[in-house]
Amino acid sequence: MLNRRTLRIKAMQTLFAYKQSQEANYALALDFIAETFSPDLNSMEVQDKEQLKKDKAEASKIFKTHFEEKDYQAEADNNIESVVEEAIRDYHKRNLKDQKHFNKTMIQEAEKIVDRYILILLLIVEFADLAEKDHKLNQTTFVKNLLIKAIRFNKSVETLSLRRNLNWSNETDHLRQWFKDILKTDEKYKEYVKLENASFKDDQEIVLHIAKNIIFKNELIEGFMEESDINWDEDRAIIKSLVTKTLKSIPEEDVNEEFELQELSYNWEDDKTFFQKLFEESIKVEEAYNSLIAEKTKNWDIERIAATDKVIIEMAIAEMINFPSIPVKVTINEYIEVAKRYSTPKSKVFINGVLDVIAGELENRGVIRKSGRGLIDNK
Questions:
Q1: Which of 126, 171, 286, 297 is 20 to 30 Å from the Cα of 34, by its Cα?
Q2: How far is 122 from 128, CA to CA, in rounded Å?
Q3: pLDDT higher than threshold 60 for residue 343
């Protein structure tokens, strides 16, 4: 199940990507200035190359000084400043477009976890279909597996697979290879198909075995999943949990009844709001609190602080300010855990110290105001 820590990690990764796009947009703006003040090779007029070179240098200097000012305006009849104004305007337009793109795609990518979850359930059904067509080994026991039957005829699985176009129809070669070289050679599977009267427990154990020890462990299948889904390594544990919980939840006494699919999170609508707001507010923090971060890290060169650490600090500030129900200590501890996994070995100590000082100052200023559960341990 998707939890808040995972959402923080996904937001961090998205913010990191967004910052890289900002750098690219910055470079594009400077390229625009350079191109504008380059000699026009198609012009019949004499080009003053030295003056163009000076103008380019001056425009680049002004841009680097004022690029963060969204409302920058050129003085009338000043060609250099007019070019800078256009470069700054286009820079911020590209950033806004990228921000909307990343905001949208990070939600889509998170929701694709459900797609992978359904595809794994359908993969088990595909194995049963191949077993039925295979005449070299009697696999009737597997074909008649009660849990596979329950998945096959589950309305929710059917609806989602149709709505999202989830199927294995384009992977027949992979399916056959996995079935022949992996499943059929598995000792537990060979023992299972020999059973004449498999019990519900037998059916459940083999399906869980296929899910946990074959689909989520075999190198060939894992390799395919990683190639087809860039987030597989990150989301693998969540998908595995959804699949195994589903297979364990199908009741023996009502095996022919509809079973409920696992939810992506306890309350996806609330979590989605948290996810999006955290991303959006973290972007604002850099502009609003960069000087404060610089001040509190004065013993560190802010330009040399690990990029991941800077993103983590900005996210923590955004969360402390914008989510009154989350205690400050919870926020700090969560981002220390993120730093342990994604940043440098010394980052957790650095981030803990910086956030503790910044939190204290923002609380004294009245910027951080907690309520309800957010007041717990908030000393």
A1: 286
A2: 10
A3: yes
Residues 124/151, Cβ–Cβ less than 8 Å: yes
Name the phi and psi angles at 369, rounded to 5: -130, 115
pLDDT of residue 254: 73
Mean pLDDT to the nearest integer, 9-19: 96
Residue count of the chain, please give it. Answer: 379
Please state the domain count of the chain.
3
Backbone φ, ψ for residue 139 (5° rounding): -125, 30
Q: Per-residue pLDDT tens for 131-190?
A: 999 988 899 999 999 999 999 999 999 999 999 999 999 999 999 999 999 999 999 999
* Contact assessment for residue 302 and residue 289, using Cβ atoms and an 8 Å cutoff: no
Q: Is there a contact between 379 and 322 (Cβ–Cβ < 8 Å)?
A: no
Model pTM greater than 0.70?
Answer: yes
Domain boundary among 102, 130, 162: 102
- What is the Cα–Cα distance from 81 to 345, expressed in whole angstroms? 45
The pLDDT-based confidence of 127 (bands split at 50, 70, 90) is: very high
**What b/e sequence results for 248-268 when a residue is b if at least 16 CB atoms lie within 10 Å of its CB, and e otherwise?**
eebeeeeeeeebebbebbeee
Closest to 359 measured CA to CA, from 329, 337, 334, 325: 329
Structural domain boundaries enclosing 327: 268-375
Which residue, among 91, 51, 1, 11, has the nearest Cα to 315 in the 3D structure?
Answer: 11
Judge if 131 and 215 occupy the same domain. Answer: yes
Query: Are 79 and 27 part of one and the same domain?
Result: yes
Phi, psi (degrees; rounded to nearest 5) at 102: -65, -35
**Do 59 and 83 contact (CB within 8 A), yes or no?**
yes
Q: Are residues 97 and 116 in the same domain?
A: no
**What is the mean predicted confidence (pLDDT) over 121-133?**
98
Let me know whether 294 and 360 are in one domain. Answer: yes
260 belongs to a structural domain: no
* Tokens found for residue 45: 């007029």
Answer yes or no: is 255 within a domain. no
CA distance 357 to 295: 11
Question: Do 283 and 369 sit in the same domain of this protein?
Answer: yes
Question: Residue 73: is it exposed, middle or buried by C-beta count within 10 angstroms (0-12/13-18/19+)?
Answer: exposed
Same domain? For 303 and 179 the reply is no
